[in-house]
Structures are given as structure tokens and as C-alpha cells.
Predict the structure.
Amino acid sequence: NLQDNFIPNLLKDYPYISYSLEGEQRQQNENLESLKNNYILSLIIVYMLLAIPFRSYIQPIIVMSAIPFGIIGAVIGHLLFGMNFSILSMIGIVALSGVVVNDSLVLVDFINRYVKNGYSIEEASIKAGKTRFRPILLTSITTFVGLMPLLLEKSLQAQFLIPMAVSLGFGVLFSTFIILILIPNGVVLISKLQKEHIA
């Protein structure tokens, strides 16, 4: 209200005035800026760590393509709980990115294994999806269920942790179903595009 209404009206009458937000607001802005920079750095490191064993520049992008869907899940969770995004929500999203990458990584690794064993890329994707469906689904559901006590906690001490749990829980749950569809299709699509480019 202060930023949207009071200060703009004040600046109309006194345009030479400058203002800045201090205290907790300033500290939160600094923390968010630091978190954003560190998050970008961590994504670059994750990409490099994936590119080395995969020996590919494209497969790490396929693995990491699930991260935005995890973030969408976190946003949906906040909307369902009627919460605003906070610094702890963002920390939850950072943690969520690691979990999402892990699920995608396992799926792509299994596809690569089946391709090495002589399966076509389409057969390998279907077989890997079937093989990893239950473990990926169970991992995500158990993560969400494990966070449920915190999500439903009413005590004052737990309130500041709930946004982080919402980001992690709903992000994992939403991205799981996307991963099981997006990743195998992404691998097949990229493989076909590469073959067409070579041809």
C-alpha cells in the first residue's frame, strides 16, 4: 500500500524527494538478490556435472527442463494455501530443483542404457518410462506425504517453515507427472532432430 498508493501521491507533490526501503525489507531484497545469483550459479554447475557423464550438451538441458514445471507446482501450492511468496518459498524452490533434476536424471540414464543395449530410442524411452514409473512416483508421493505434517501444522513456531514445505511438496508432486511424459518425449524428439540434421 505504501509503495503503490502513498509514495506515488507524495512524489506528485514533492518530486524532488527520494526514498528507499530499509530494515527488514532491505535485508529481504538483498537476500533475494544473493539467492538469485547463487541459484543461477548452481544451475550452471548442475549443467556441467550432467554434461560430463552424458557426454552431451543437449541431454542436460532435457533433464533440467523439468525445473520450470516444478516451479509452476510451487506457485499452484501457494495459490491453494493462499500464501504470498517469501524468501523461504524461494529456498524451497532451490531445494526442489535438485529433487526434480534427480528424477529426470535417473530416467534419462535408463533410456541411455537401453539404447546401448540395442533398443531403438522410442523403445528405450517406453521401456525406461515403464521401469522407472513406480520408483519416481513413490519417491514423489512419499516426499509429499512426509511434508504433510508440516503443511498442516498450526503452531506459531512452524508457520515460517510452511512456505518452504509448500514449494517443495507441491513442486515435486506436480513435476513428477510432467517428468514421466516430458523427458522420454524430449529425448525422442531431440534424437530425431539430430538424425534429420545429420541426414
